[in-house]
């Protein structure tokens, strides 16, 4: 009990530190630091992200799309309140049934800003290739949401016409911000910069409070093994199924790399996956459920197993081709202290695994790429989940789970005693599971050779070119 109380106290301290200092002294004044609105913005005013002047056109354009008001009516004796959500975030706050971005008043707010950008040659106001590629990516998410709504023909004709006006202008902005192939190659490798920054611990020692970032993730294939469920000889008609569910939910604007580390290194991983494929999966039940279903003979993953899901940014070059970059958008880490989901040894999830999550922050990335642009997400602060839920036609505004804390989202999605999603069964990438929308399950994930490292980015680039949203983008550009 004493140990649990101490961990709770430490978590509360970390939350307070995050709320008061994570955005730096220059941005802290824009956020509520205590009370029920802690962690939310004080207003919808632009932040000094792309330029030190909050009123710079790029800051105003970004704020118009990445800061949203949320109104709560008066109830239970409490007055009505408005929260301002978003800011320096990587996810565009739009879910499947969201109509906020299609409203006439929002159109009247954002349409003049797009006109200003196009008429003033907004792409020339800042020349930094890193800022250009990030703003393009930010606006690409807006385009994809609006065009997806029109592809599905949601709302009336007038609403669809407004969306089309914005999409045409957003497409022009994306093209103007595009970099040349040479400029894209010269973009920084932000993971390596993060490791070299000294801002992160090189080992975790099963201490959840450590800001751990493995230095060998991209350089030690005998320790950190990249895995993939792609089968190169499969029929082309189903090749689009070989992109992660996360990539699909973001319509190909990001690509993901998956890494495993077992205590015994690469040899142990290769042997484990071989045994799992031979006798460890109940394929009929797995296909029926959409998730890993283990047999009684399935080998257990070793305690100490570590997993990383690395999200990287896709861009569109000046030849209108999707291209993978080396800019990290998020780093999600899991390490197993037990494989039965119990509360001992203690973990920050209370379910046998420690988790941590880093996200790209523009205020760090644009400040000489401090910490590789990465900052840890707080464990105890509520946050929205747009990825995965985002494109579901039934997803309500602000998401299914509204706001829940990070580790609860992880446990809800990956672990369940009732469904026996424990140990290996809580790792969807083992058989490309994650529900029927993920596509057919065609075998256990395979370890990549070092020469195959990073091939997922090229596959996602191809996936994006085949996506309806991209075809519409080219139509708006007259291509």
Series of secondary-structure elements, N-terminal to C-terminal: HHHEEHHHHHEHEHHEEEHEHEHH
How much of the sequence lies in strands comes to 5-15%
Q: Helicity, in percent? A: 25-40%
Strand order, sheet with most strands: 8-7-6-5-4-3-9
Spans of 5+ residues with little confidence (pLDDT < 50)? 1-24
Count of DSSP H/I helices? 15
Total domain count: 2
Q: What's the helix and strand layout?
A:
Elements lengths: L1 H20 L3 H4 L28 H10 E6 L8 E6 L17 H16 L9 H23 L5 H21 L3 H5 L4 H7 L28 E4 L16 H5 L4 E8 L3 H15 L3 H7 L16 E11 L5 E15 L16 E8 L1 H4 L8 E3 L29 H9 L31 E2 L8 H11 L1 H9 L3
Antiparallel strand pairs: 1-2, 3-4, 3-9, 4-5, 5-6, 6-7, 7-8
Could you characterize what this model shows?
- With 479 residues, this protein is of the alpha+beta class.
- The chain folds into two domains: 40-177, no CATH class; 187-476, no CATH class.
- It has helices spanning 2-21, 25-28, 57-66, 104-119, 129-151, 157-177, 181-185, 190-196, 245-249, 265-279, 283-289, 362-365, 406-414, 456-466, 468-476, and strands at 67-72, 81-86, 225-228, 254-261, 306-316, 322-336, 353-360, 374-376, 446-447.
- The strands form two sheets. A seven-stranded antiparallel β-sheet has the order 8-7-6-5-4-3-9, sandwiched between helices. Strands 1-2 form a two-stranded antiparallel ribbon.
- Strand 1 (67-72) and strand 2 (81-86) form a beta hairpin.
- Helix 3 packs antiparallel against helix 4 (104-119).
- The longest helix has 23 residues, at 129-151.
- Residues 1-24 have low confidence and may be disordered.
């Amino acid at each position: 009990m004493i140990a649990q109380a101490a961990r709770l106290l430490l978590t509360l301290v970390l939350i307070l530190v995050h709320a008061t200092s994570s955005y730096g002294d220059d941005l802290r004044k824009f956020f509520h630091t205590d009370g029920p609105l802690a962690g939310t913005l004080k207003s919808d005013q632009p932040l000094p992200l792309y330029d030190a002047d909050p009123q710079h056109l790029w800051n105003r354009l970004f704020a118009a799309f990445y800061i949203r008001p949320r109104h709560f009516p008066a109830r239970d004796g409490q007055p009505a309140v408005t929260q301002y959500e978003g800011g320096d975030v990587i996810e565009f706050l739009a879910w499947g049934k969201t109509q906020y971005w299609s409203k006439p008043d929002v159109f009247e707010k954002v349409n003049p800003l797009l006109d200003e950008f196009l008429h003033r040659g907004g792409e020339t106001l800042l020349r930094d290739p890193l800022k250009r590629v990030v703003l393009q990516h930010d606006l690409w998410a807006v385009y994809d949401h609006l065009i997806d709504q029109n592809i599905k023909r949601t709302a009336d004709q007038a609403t669809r016409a407004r969306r089309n006006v914005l999409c045409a202008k957003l497409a022009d902005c994306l093209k103007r911000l595009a970099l040349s192939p040479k400029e894209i190659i010269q973009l920084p490798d932000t993971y390596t910069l993060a490791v070299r920054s000294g801002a992160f611990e090189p080992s975790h020692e099963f201490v959840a409070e450590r800001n751990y970032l493995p230095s060998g993730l991209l350089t030690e294939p005998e320790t950190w093994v990249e895995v993939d469920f792609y089968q190169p000889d499969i029929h082309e008609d189903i090749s689009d199924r070989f992109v992660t569910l996360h990539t699909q939910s973001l319509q190909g604007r990001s690509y993901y790399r998956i890494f495993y580390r077992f205590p015994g290194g690469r040899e142990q991983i290769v042997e484990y996956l071989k045994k799992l494929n031979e006798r460890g999966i109940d394929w009929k039940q797995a296909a029926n459920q959409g998730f890993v279903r283990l047999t009684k003979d399935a080998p257990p993953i070793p305690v100490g197993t570590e997993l990383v899901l690395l999200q990287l940014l896709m861009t569109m070059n000046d030849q209108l081709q999707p291209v993978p970059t080396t800019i990290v958008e998020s780093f999600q880490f899991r390490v197993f202290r037990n494989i039965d989901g119990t509360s001992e040894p203690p973990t920050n999830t209370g379910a046998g695994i420690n988790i941590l999550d880093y996200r790209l922050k523009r205020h760090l990335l644009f400040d000489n790429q401090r910490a590789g642009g990465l900052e840890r997400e707080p464990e105890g602060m509520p946050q929205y989940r747009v990825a995965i839920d985002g494109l579901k036609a039934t997803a309500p505004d602000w998401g299914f789970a509204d706001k829940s804390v990070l580790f609860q989202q992880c446990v809800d999605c990956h672990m369940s005693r009732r469904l026996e999603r424990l140990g290996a069964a809580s790792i969807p990438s083992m058989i490309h599971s994650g529900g029927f929308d993920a596509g057919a399950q065609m075998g256990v994930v395979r370890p990549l050779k070092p020469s195959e490292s990073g091939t997922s980015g090229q596959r996602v680039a191809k996936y994006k070119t085949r996506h309806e949203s991209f075809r519409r983008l080219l139509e708006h550009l007259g291509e």
